[in-house]
From TrEMBL:
Residues 2-220 form the ABC transporter domain. This is ABC transporter ATP-binding protein. GO terms for molecular function: ATP binding; ATP hydrolysis activity; transmembrane transporter activity. Keywords: ATP-binding, Nucleotide-binding, Transport. SMART domains: AAA (SM00382). It holds the Pfam family ABC_tran. It comes from the Archaea. InterPro entries: AAA+_ATPase (IPR003593), ABC_transporter-like_ATP-bd (IPR003439), ABC_transporter-like_CS (IPR017871), ABC_transpr_LolD-like (IPR015854), MacB-like_ATP-bd (IPR017911), P-loop_NTPase (IPR027417). GO terms for cellular component: plasma membrane.
Length: 221
């Protein structure tokens, strides 16, 4: 279980441009389920997902993974934990320009001392399932937004992580691709993965086991 205790995030604290992005959020996220975070633009979904993914540190409060309070751990520990356990799909896709799709998927594996060749079959299978196999050797700049989103999706899943955190994973894709992404999410859940998705997509909300609705930094239901 991932437990969030009294999470508050204040950007630019004490300055005139201070923003209270999250206020006193408490949640218990179950393993092996699909949890959806939803709510209007600016309500704090990306902020919360980044805190759960140990990319961002909360101003106050604790993040507890399976009973272990990881909030105060070092950046080194957090980076290692993230690499080994979390696949993060960013809202702003974040692929490396100048590299092709396949390189974007496989290059991060080098930094984890893994042999990318061992992951080639899985990369091909996911690219094919998402109908972007024929784009594998295309440079990022030559891909459409929806194609880039699918590549980022494969990159996040390549290591078969235990936790999958996806920030609006279907905003740039068409309905058909959206369905493929939903199916993949359900397959991952059936294999025991823990999935947390920020989304407005009603179809994704339908497949969720738990839905949390936010309004401007607060949890409403
Ligand atoms: N780095 C930052 N510095 C200052 N304020 C920020 C920063 N990032 C986000 N905010 C503010 O915090 C609030 C929550 O932002 P966040 O990106 O978490 O919202 P969101 O729910 O993901 O929105 P969207 O649906 O548009 O992606 C917003 O008011 C935003 O302007
Ligand atoms: Mg967002």
């Amino acid at each position: 279980m991932i437990e969030l205790r009294n999470i508050t995030k204040i950007y630019n604290k004490g300055k005139p441009n201070e923003v209270i992005a999250l206020k006193d959020i408490n949640m218990k996220i179950k393993e092996g389920k699909i949890t959806v975070l939803t709510g209007p633009s600016g309500c704090g979904k990306t902020t919360l997902l980044s805190i759960i993914g140990l990319i961002l540190t909360p101003t106050y409060g604790d993040v507890i993974y399976n009973g272990e309070n990881v909030t105060k751990y070092s950046d080194y520990w957090k980076t290692k934990f993230r690499r080994e356990n979390i696949g993060f799909i960013f809202q702003h896709i974040n692929l490396l320009p100048g590299y092709n799709a396949l390189e974007n998927i496989l290059l991060p594996l080098y930094s984890m001392d893994l042999n990318p060749m061992d992951y080639m079959d899985r990369a091909m299978e996911l690219l094919s399932r998402l109908k972007v196999l024929e784009r594998a050797k295309h440079k990022v700049e030559q891909l459409s937004g929806g194609e880039q989103q699918r590549i980022a999706f494969v990159r996040a899943l390549i290591k078969d992580p235990k936790y999958i955190l996806a920030d609006e994973p279907t905003v740039f894709v068409d309905e058909e691709t959206s369905h493929i992404i939903h199916d993949i999410m359900e397959d991952l859940r059936d294999r025991g993965k823990t999935i947390i998705i920020s989304t407005h997509d009603p179809e994704l909300i339908k497949i969720a086991d738990e839905v949390y609705r936010f309004t401007y930094g607060r949890l409403i239901t």
